[in-house]
């Protein structure tokens, strides 16, 4: 039986092994850690829900509750574009092929592809972020 709640815990635990990176599950606190100059220290926010059915159905046309398509997202944030890209690469290396149940977490082939960090000027000081979509399909 698939357990997206356990998958979520496994992904967060894997992210928490990244040195010097704070990990948040679904939301970011109003105040995040900063360095002496006031610049945000690197962090990753993970967004993952309960998943959905695998789109293909058998002849019965019933949903296979033992199968799961679980789309999720990480958002890497840092004080500048270089640090953000480096930490996002660490996240990619940590999560790509992460075993979850009988399958492995992979970059989402249908997800958007943001290749360069985006500057968020709504925060002071400004910070950079790089979102990445993920997918798990298991039966």
Q: Can you offer a commentary on this structure?
A:
The chain is of the alpha+beta class. The protein has one domain (4-54, 66-138): STM4215-like, CATH 3.30.2000. 19% of the residues lie in helices and 32% in strands. The protein has two helices and seven strands. The chain has helices at residues 4-15, 81-95, and strands at residues 22-25, 43-48, 68-78, 98-100, 103-107, 118-120, 127-138. Strands 1, 2, 3, 4, 5, 6 and 7 form a seven-stranded mixed sheet that branches. The longest helix is centred in the middle third of the chain and has 15 residues, at 81-95. The protein is elongated and about 60 Å long. The chain starts with a helix and ends with a strand. The mean pLDDT is 89.
Our measurement of the CA-to-CA distance between the termini, rounded to an integer number of angstroms, reads 8 Å
Shape: elongated
- What is the oligomeric state here? single chain
Report low-confidence residues grouped into runs of 5 or more.
Answer: none
CATH class: Alpha Beta
> How much of the residues is beta strand, in percent?
25-35%
CATH architecture: 2-Layer Sandwich
Q: Number of helical segments?
A: 2
Structural class given helices, strands, pairing? Answer: alpha+beta
Total count of strands = 7
CA radius of gyration is: 17 Å
Q: Total domains, how many?
A: 1
- The CATH topology is given as STM4215-like
What is the N-to-C order of secondary-structure elements (H for helix, E for strand)?
Answer: HEEEHEEEE
How can the largest sheet be summarized? 7 strands, mixed
Mean pLDDT: 89
Helical amount among residues, as a percent range? Answer: 10-25%
Going by CATH, what is the homologous superfamily? Phage tail protein-like
């Amino acid at each position: 039986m698939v357990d997206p709640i356990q998958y979520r815990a496994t992904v967060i635990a894997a992210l928490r092994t990244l040195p010097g990176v704070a990990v948040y599950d679904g939301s970011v606190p109003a105040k995040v850690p900063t360095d002496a100059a006031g610049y945000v220290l690197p962090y990753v926010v993970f967004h993952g829900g309960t998943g959905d059915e695998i789109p293909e159905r058998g002849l019965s046309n019933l949903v296979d509750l033992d199968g799961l398509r679980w789309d999720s997202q990480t958002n890497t944030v840092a004080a500048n574009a270089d640090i953000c890209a480096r930490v996002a690469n660490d996240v990619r290396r940590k999560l790509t092929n992460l075993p979850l149940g009988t399958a492995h977490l992979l970059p989402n082939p249908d997800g958007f592809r943001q290749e360069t960090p985006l500057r968020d000027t709504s925060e002071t000081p400004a910070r950079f972020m790089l979102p990445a979509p993920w997918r798990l399909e298991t039966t």
